[in-house]
Amino acid sequence: MYRCWILALLLLFNPAAAQDQKVADSLKQILPELSDDSLRYAALYRIIANEGSPEQALASANQLLEIGERIGDPLRIAMAWEETSLAHRRLGNLTQSAKAAMNAQSIYTKEGKTDQLAASHAQLASAWVLEGQYPEAISEYTAALKIYRTVSDTLRQCLTLLNMGEVYRLDEQLDSAIRYFQEALLLNKSADEIVEGYSTGNLGMAYYTQGKTDSARTLLETAIRRLEPLGDHYSVSIYRFELGKLFVDSGSIPEGREIMLRAHATAIREGLKEQVRDFSRELAGHFHTHGDFARAYSYQQQYHTYKDSLLNIDNVRRVEQMRGQYQVDQREAEITFLNQLNASRERVLWILGVGALVLALLSLLLYHFYRQKNKANRVLARREEEKALLLRELNHRTKNNLQMISSLLNLQSATLDDHLADLVREGRYRVDSLALIHQRLYQQGFTYIEMDEYLGELISHIGEGFDPEANLETEIEPCTLHVDRAIPLALIVNELLTNAFKYGKNGNGHPEIRVELKRMEHHNRLVIHDRGPGIPESDPAALKSFGLNLVYSLARQLNAELTLDTTLGTQWTLILNNG
């Protein structure tokens, strides 16, 4: 069953300004100069709002809590607990997130702050949903709904009813889910298009699960018509895929299959990795059932590829538990060793008092220590293996967080005009290039990257995003780089290749691009060439864009030589010395 979780609703219950790391870094520099607690509290609050690192956000939230307790202001303490809860959720620590949210709730209840209390209930409910604790989530949403009804906040009532219906649908309590979706539709007097679309679509999925295909088809088609013009590709792809399954189940196999494939293509185009994973699994089963084993195998492979790229909260929790258990085991091993050492000393003193048996007992003691040393070495080897696992999972988690940021940027770009959307999309590709690095670190090791494999994947990813029909020629020789050199080089390739796809178009409207990476005796040579109109070297503005400034800065960081040739199109050449 798909989790059609509505990001817009979660953001409404947890409003936050767009993050700006530069603002956070600037405030961190002046923070030590602020002696007044009120000013430090305000600065820390803005730092958290703009902080890109969840670990840093949690550290700042702890400082916020200390100041609030020192001032003795209950509302500031509650706000600090809320920021602590959000930071823990970003880190995947859902239990700690829930505890912090409960602390905030307790204060808001005591102080009679109904608006903040309702938002805190909704925030805690979303944490319970992510952990699969549906009864607890329903309880928190019910408390939030009661407050919104008291203050007559119709929009938030509708959104809370939608969330409650979705939780019941995930918990397979379809009658309750349908009741809340219908109530949201009736209450939506302002005819908000988003509320109308989500209520209709989710109600259609619930009816489909119950076997009411005629009603389900009408509702799903209505939801798609309402949400598609709004650019909500996430929900539209889910509703369209459900509609395709409905057609297949009703006997219209070709038409249903075409609808499912269209939803799958949308998910790939918009970078909706969770949907690509789920749709690929469903399509693999569909084609297998209908005897098309080649296509079934292809989609099964795609399912496994995308499955690995998504956040696995259970793995994160197991890593946290392993880290805690490792610390406990390490402490116990130290205590055991000290006890054994004390016992050995006592035995040595006793042996010295025995004249005739000194040499024999000493030999036995040395043999005992020899065995203990071997045992300790085995323990240390096992700890090293656990440390390696922790490092792999850390890279896995970093990669997943970057992919989540990429998905958020993709959703944000759908609400912006073309120019701003292009800028956000360029930022998304930069994040994707870093995510691929951490995926390689997770799969291959902790320090070095096989650049030929990595660049092939990066080029393919950018090509699919810009123009799958582009004439793309690559000649990449095997090359291994340390991660400190691989990351700047990956960002350089991302920027130059993005420009090539945007501006290197030929007469038929598709780019012609060639990428080379050759390993010489003393250096590596990277060439990115397109046959577009070229960048005039005499045009200072063209050579001072943010992307090219970033490229030149990264080239200096690598001590590499970067040259531009506009004789036949645009050709960038980077000479990277071996080292």
TrEMBL record:
Protein's UniProt keywords contain S-adenosyl-L-methionine: no
Pfam families in alphabetical order: HATPase_c, HisKA_2, TPR_12
SUPFAM superfamilies cross-referenced by the UniProt entry: ATPase domain of HSP90 chaperone/DNA topoisomerase II/histidine kinase, TPR-like
Gene3D superfamilies: Histidine kinase-like ATPase, C-terminal domain, PAS domain, Tetratricopeptide repeat domain
SMART domains: HATPase_c, TPR
Domain of life per record: Bacteria
Signal peptide span: 1-18
Reactions the enzyme catalyzes: ATP + protein L-histidine = ADP + protein N-phospho-L-histidine
UniProt KW keywords: ATP-binding, Kinase, Membrane, Nucleotide-binding, Phosphoprotein, Signal, TPR repeat, Transferase, Transmembrane, Transmembrane helix
Keyword Protease in record: no
TPR repeat residue numbers: 158-191
Residue stretches spanning the membrane: 348-370
Domain Histidine kinase span(s) in chain numbering: 393-579
Enzyme Commission code(s) on record: 2.7.13.3
Name of this protein: histidine kinase
Source organism per UniProt: Fulvivirga kasyanovii
